[in-house]
Design a protein that fits this description.
It contains 23 helices and five strands. With 450 residues, the chain is of the alpha/beta class.
């Protein structure tokens, strides 16, 4: 009886040994065949077989890994990440799973699904394995940059460039960080290197344009922004920047063209839309197309009431809605405006000797029409008519006084469609200059034929 039991036990032991022996031979072969199928892009077959292997052994790291790669090939990255996490938990890299390619893939997926801490851990592990791999330093730099750790990001980008001097992306990112740190000279060097290596790096061209614009080199800046505008995501911003350059150059018509394109392309209500319209309204105001400027300010106000000084602009130009004469004064073309200034001068009881256009207005030299004393010498008076929305400050009154001295004129008058600052009023108080603000101008306009 004992002999029979011993034989049975021996048989069971042999069977178990045979099972594990066969398994140790057949499972690796089956896993290897799955890798072959994966290389042949037969992902469905891999998925089915890998799931069967995992059902028999949940800690089969190779099966989890191949299943993850199959999901990745089918663009099912969330499922792929789940399987690769299982591999990480098992932590067995003795079989088919090669640690470096595995960590590269899982780090990529962590980053894709906004898990920067996990991605960072993987890249730091990779750096321990391959400390001279520039790509890892670049990826770590991107993670730190996204987390607003610019100092650390810059260090990793610099290390990337040390290891791979032809990495255009690293140079561009480093240049951008240096620009934001107001280190324009260093930023320009990195960005120039980036576009030499990668001429279609549109973001680098955009920031080169910003640096050139900041240094007032608007012609070169416009060329850079033209290149950056070829990237759809930068097109509106680049058009706005080109418009700003043209404003600086005094080419308002061309600026309007660029800014109108930007406003049309921008998403309604977006920051780009508001800035495009704001600078467009600035051009319209300078060109005396005040009604169009007001339309832009009203649009901006409807989307964002506290945007820059839009509310103040609308308040200053509210006469356009209620006073047609003030509207004409503000919007007439140059020649018609000079004619109105002549009539306003005559309404003051003066005869016009000379009239000329100046920035934001006109300048008239006039004398009294008649004198009570037959032999009295007619004393000239310098009058400046200004059509601006901003408060007139002391410098404008001072400049008028200096012009009076140059021309040998003893009396002066400034007439404006806005108001005067307290300092401007104090300066004029003890000098031979009268100040007529908006209300006095409105009274004068009522006395003439427009």
């Amino acid at each position: 009886m004992g002999l029979i039991i011993a034989i049975i036990i021996l048989g069971i032991a042999i069977a178990v040994i045979a099972f594990f022996l066969m398994r140790s031979i057949l499972v690796p072969k089956r896993v290897e065949s799955l890798r072959t199928l994966l290389r042949q892009n037969k992902t469905q077959a891999v998925i089915k077989a890998a799931k069967q292997l995992i059902a028999k052994d949940t800690r089969n790291a190779d099966a989890h890994y191949l299943l993850g790669l199959a999901y990745d090939q089918e663009n099912k990255q969330e499922l792929a990440l789940m399987e690769l996490k299982a591999v990480n938990q098992i932590g067995n890299f003795d079989g088919l799973v090669e640690e470096v390619p595995f960590r590269q893939k899982i780090a990529e997926l962590y980053a894709k699904f906004n898990q920067p801490e996990e991605a960072l851990k993987e890249y730091l592990l990779l750096l321990k394995r391959e400390p001279n791999k520039a790509e890892y330093y670049y990826c770590v730099g991107r993670i730190f940059e996204d987390r607003n750790r610019s100092d650390k990001a810059a260090r990793y980008y610099r290390k990337t460039c040390e290891l791979d001097s032809r990495n255009a992306e690293a140079r561009a990112r480093l240049g951008l960080l240096l620009y934001r740190s107001k280190r324009s000279v260093e930023a320009r060097a990195e960005l120039d290197a980036a576009v030499r290596l990668q001429p279609d790096n549109h973001e680098a061209w955009y920031y080169i344009g910003k640096i050139l614009k900041d240094s007032r080199d608007c012609i070169a800046a416009m060329s850079a922004f033209e290149k950056s505008s070829r990237e759809p995501g930068l097109k509106v911003k680049s058009l706005i920047e080109r418009g700003g350059c043209l404003i600086t150059l005094g080419s308002l018509d061309r600026a309007v063209s660029e800014l109108e394109r930007a406003a049309k392309l921008a998403d309604e209500g977006s920051n780009e839309s508001l800035y495009a319209r704001y600078f467009l309204s600035h051009c319209y105001e300078k060109m005396r197309r005040i009604e169009q400027a007001v339309e832009e300010w009203e649009f901006i106000y409807s989307k964002k009431p506290n945007f820059r000084d839009v509310a103040e602009k609308l308040s200053k130009y509210q006469e356009l809605r209620t006073d047609d004469r003030m509207k004409d004064y503000l919007t007439l073309g140059r020649d018609q405006f000079l004619e109105v200034c002549k009539r306003l001068t005559e309404a003051l009881g003066l005869s016009v000797r000379d009239v000329r256009g100046i920035d934001n207005g006109a300048e008239v030299v006039a004398v009294e029409s008649t004198s009570k004393w037959r032999n009295a010498r007619a004393m000239p008076k310098l009058i400046r008519y200004l059509r601006v929305a901003d408060i007139i400050d002391e410098s404008t009154v001072r400049d008028t006084h200096e012009e009076m001295r140059k021309q040998g004129v003893t009396r002066g008058l400034i007439v404006t469609s806005s108001t005067f600052s307290r300092l401007a009023q104090d300066y004029a108080e003890n000098r031979p200059i009268d100040l007529y603000a908006k209300d006095r101008l409105q009274s004068l306009l009522q006395q003439i034929q427009l």
